[in-house]
Specification:
By secondary structure, this protein is mainly alpha-helical. It has helices at residues 8-21, 37-42, 61-76, 94-118, 136-146, 157-161, 176-182, 203-216, 218-232, 238-249, 253-269, 288-295, 303-306, and strands at 79-81, 87-89, 92-93, 164-166, 171-174, 273-278, 281-286.
Length: 307
């Protein structure tokens, strides 16, 4: 099975063994909420982008698969005793992470292609979007966008969202926020009944990601709210949205198109937007969830039932 070792069941067994042996194991995962002198020195938020996320980062599922691979590597890494019951992990290098995540992702794409055809998912909505095949360019795209850059430390969706941090030597840490998101069940990776319908994110994942973006990714959150406002105001076709974004952001034609495409894809995965295709015409519509949270601003609506 493509997901062997990265399902929640596999990872939870390892995680529980480690936390039982070392009650302070969670301290190995730095938090973005850290305060005080050490937090200022380490500056765990330094790689988070204050801009809208790049248009290329158009799916959360490839990020989730990469995070599951990293957690498997972290939990399986050799540890050495630091005394007082606390253990340190052997560091993981970005090269090693890229290599392992890529091999899982290539295998996963073949599996996902079967799910796409079974669920008769329409073009552009496929589970396979963002995942690499055997061809070199698609593999380089995947690792630079959904794992991390070797040359430019701190670039790539996982760093820019704040789920991992890569230091100057290329060593990778997963943040506490990254760990929390990684440990939420996912329909596709954990093969829940929703997977058969092609659902890529669980409601809990959607809610967690929404709150994380709202809290830490100011530029992305503002862009999501602006995009929702455009749709709500009737600018709900690719061309009318691009026109408005070129005005408000002073972007060129191709940048506006790429960024609009990316944010709409992410908003679809978060359950905020639906895409309707009639003939050649495409329109975007806010879901009830999107309208309530982004237009009315009621972020906590239904949170108790979800979480």
């Amino acid at each position: 099975n493509w997901s062997q070792g990265i399902t929640l069941e596999d990872l939870n067994d390892l995680y529980e063994d480690l936390t039982e042996d070392d009650p302070e194991y969670l301290l190995n995962f730095p938090t973005l909420h850290a305060k005080g002198p050490l937090a200022a020195i380490m500056d765990y938020r330094s790689q988070i982008t204050d801009e809208p996320l790049a248009g290329h980062y158009n799916r959360f599922l490839p990020m989730k698969v990469s995070l599951r691979v990293l957690l498997n590597m972290i939990l399986g890494a050799e540890t050495y005793d630091e005394g007082d019951y606390h253990t340190e992990m052997a560091p993981i290098h970005i090269d090693e992470f890229r290599s392992k995540a890529l091999s899982v992702a290539v295998y996963a794409k073949k599996w996902f292609a079967q799910l796409d055809s079974q669920a008769q998912i329409s073009v552009g909505e496929e589970i396979t979007v963002g995942f690499p095949d055997e061809e070199g360019k698609s593999q380089e795209r995947f690792v630079s966008q959904f794992v991390g850059s070797v040359r430019k430390k701190g670039e790539g969706s996982l760093c820019e969202i704040g789920f991992i941090r890569v230091d100057d030597d290329g060593m990778v840490e997963m943040t506490r926020e990254g760990l929390e998101f990684t440990r939420i069940p996912n329909p596709i990776i954990d093969a829940t009944p929703q997977a058969k319908r092609g659902i890529r994110m669980s409601q809990i994942e959607q809610f967690y990601m929404m709150r994380h973006i709202q809290q830490f990714l100011v530029g992305e959150w503002d862009f999501i709210v602006e995009t929702a406002g455009l749709i709500h105001g009737g600018s709900n076709t690719p061309s009318t949205m691009d026109e408005k974004l070129r005005e408000s952001k002073e972007w060129g034609e191709s940048r506006a198109s790429l960024m609009r495409n990316g944010v709409l894809s992410r908003m679809q995965e978060l359950g905020f937007v639906e895409r309707l295709k009639e003939g050649r015409n495409i329109t975007y519509h806010l879901t009830e969830n999107g309208n309530e949270r982004l237009v009315e601003g009621n972020l906590w609506a239904g949170a108790r039932e979800i979480v």
